[in-house]
Write a structure and sequence with these properties.
With 533 residues, the chain is mostly helical. The chain has a single domain, classed as Up-down Bundle (Growth Hormone, Chain: A), CATH 1.20.1250. The chain is built from 23 helices and no strands. α2 packs across α7 and α4 runs parallel beside α6. The two termini are 31 Å apart.
């Protein structure tokens, strides 16, 4: 490795140290907040329907009209997509660290603001909630490319996969925290207001004080983000950005000397030579980029897109699936607060038993099995379990088979997280050159969010029953849950095929993968594992 910089080599071969763990916690708390904010909305949408859309004397409590439901659940995802592209680009232009604090401030302010949504009509409240959730999503979007890039540039090459996956695994705790906060708040309110079910007394089953419940749940998302702001600001800029993009060898050596607690010399000549090398100058929209990384970018974007269609439709519509199999009783048999409690309990159980363990299996095994194997296996098992749920769907909907259904459903979650949900986040942070790394990660993540939007909006309509008398109020008939699950199985199978475009990055340095170590024939390094499809 004649061209390798000493400071980058020092990071690559460093033993796992305290600063690795602080970096995981600082970047990971951002992800904890992201997941909390994105997924906590699904815990309170039924409550919003009761509070703002209940008609006096109706046989069933109110629910959000289709367009409002789609907007409230989906608007944050649209913001996230925009944020990923914008902050990904900005992270390569201004530096990872400078943009990092900005995304956090946006998240804190918008979390609080979305809990303070106001309006004199139901539409007004929903519109202001959607406005703040869009900008909350915008801040969350910035966290994806920046956290992944910062972690991959700080890590050593032996355990880099586990470190980036650990940052992402905090998402699991965020989803869990959402459920726990909703459980605590709803339990406290239930103890104070002992109310009858909607069936027994429609008027008395809802108290105006319940309007605080969803606001408390949404606003709590600001707490973990605010706690990590100080530490984020103290982190130095990554050496790879300072040396390879900002071309400041002195600063890179000084920063990393502090972090690694060793003396490092500033190799100004080497930095100059590397950054002036023609093979390290091509931009994103060039033939050279397409030749070297075109297929990789296609692989990372398509796999993330396909995965998120399945992952988000599963996550955001858990409660509908639970109601369909009878885990959650019909709405009229509960009062407003019991409904929140039961939805939160079901979601917390799934998170605890399958979502969280899946993430940590990836952390433990990614540097042994490699990214490619985990992603392929994950897509394969997701396909298998989706079909196993869908084809005998009538069998699963019978009362005595419901536990089996939930177990199978949990397995699809487990293999999403011990599989493509983690690896699609890790790989784009490793295989692109430093000056485009954050942008390419942002593009890949935005493709994922486009898939999430398809999943969230599409599944909302598709999963409606074929029988007009069984659809939710205001929805057209759909293809039913059974056919929706078959579709998701097919999508996972296609994801398996596109995984073949993604290179294996296990155990190689970032410069070796992106061809930035001054060797002109970088192609051999890059096409580490590209299988022709």
């Amino acid at each position: 490795m004649a061209g390798e910089l000493g400071v980058l080599n020092a990071l690559d071969v460093a033993k796992t140290q305290w600063y690795h763990f602080t970096a995981i916690v600082i970047a990971g708390m951002g992800f904890f907040t992201d997941a909390y904010d994105l997924f906590c909305i699904s815990l309170v949408t039924k409550l919003l329907g009761r509070l703002y859309y209940t008609e006096p004397g109706a046989p069933k409590p109110g629910s959000l009209p289709p367009r409002v439901q789609a907007s409230v659940t989906g608007v944050a995802l649209c913001g996230t997509l925009a944020g990923q592209l914008f902050f990904g680009w900005l992270g390569d232009k201004m530096g990872r660290k400078r943009v990092y604090g900005l995304t956090l401030i946006l998240m804190v302010v918008c979390s609080l603001a979305s809990g303070l949504s106001f309006g004199s009509t139901p539409e007004g409240v929903m519109a202001s909630l959607c406005f703040f959730r869009f900008w909350l999503g915008f801040g969350i979007g910035g966290d994806y490319p920046l956290s992944a890039t910062i972690m991959s540039e700080y890590a050593n090459k032996k355990t880099r996969g586990a470190f980036i996956a650990a940052v992402f695994a905090m998402q699991g705790f965020g989803i869990l925290a959402g459920g726990v906060v909703a459980l605590i708040v709803s339990y406290a309110y239930d103890q104070k207001y002992k109310l009858p079910s909607y069936e027994q007394n429609p008027e008395a089953s809802l108290d105006p004080a319940f309007d605080y419940v969803w606001r408390i749940v949404l606003m709590f998302g600001a707490v973990p983000a605010a706690l990590t702001y100080y530490w984020r600001m103290k982190m130095p800029e990554t050496a790879r950005y300072t040396a390879l993009v900002a071309k400041n060898a002195k600063q890179a050596a000084a920063d990393m000397s502090k972090v690694l607690q060793v003396e490092l010399e500033a190799e100004e000549e080497k930095v100059k030579k590397l950054t002036e090398n023609e093979s390290n100058k091509y931009g994103l929209f060039t033939k050279e980029f397409v030749k070297r990384h075109g297929l990789h970018l296609l692989g990372t974007t398509t796999t993330w897109f396909l995965l998120d269609i399945a992952f988000y439709s599963q996550n955001l519509f858990q409660k509908d699936i639970f109601s369909a199999i009878g885990w959650i009783p019909p709405a009229k048999e509960m009062n407003a607060i019991h409904e929140v409690y039961k939805i939160a309990r079901a979601q917390t159980l799934i998170a605890l038993c399958s979502t969280v363990p899946g993430y940590w299996f990836t952390v433990a095994l990614i540097d042994y099995m490699g990214r490619f194997a985990i992603q392929l296996l994950g897509f394969f098992f997701m396909t298998v379990f989706m079909f196993a749920l869908a084809i005998p769907y009538d069998h699963w909907s019978e009362k005595e088979n419901r536990i089996g259904f939930v177990v199978m459903y949990s397995f699809t979650f487990f293999f999403a997280n011990f599989g493509p949900n983690s690896t699609t986040f890790v790989v784009p942070a490793e295989i692109f050159p430093a000056r485009l790394r954050s942008t390419c990660h942002g593009i890949s993540a935005a493709a994922g969010k486009a898939g999430a939007i398809v999943g969230a909006f599409g599944f909302l309509y598709a999963a409606q029953s074929k029988d007009p008398s069984k659809t939710d109020a205001g929805y057209p008939t759909g293809i039913g849950i059974k056919n929706s699950l078959i579709m998701l199985g097919v999508i996972n199978f296609i994801g398996m095929l596109f995984t073949l475009l993604v290179p294996e990055s296990k155990g190689k340095s970032l410069e070796e993968l992106s061809g930035e170590n001054g060797e002109n024939d970088a192609e051999h390094a890059v096409s580490a594992r590209t299988v022709p499809v």
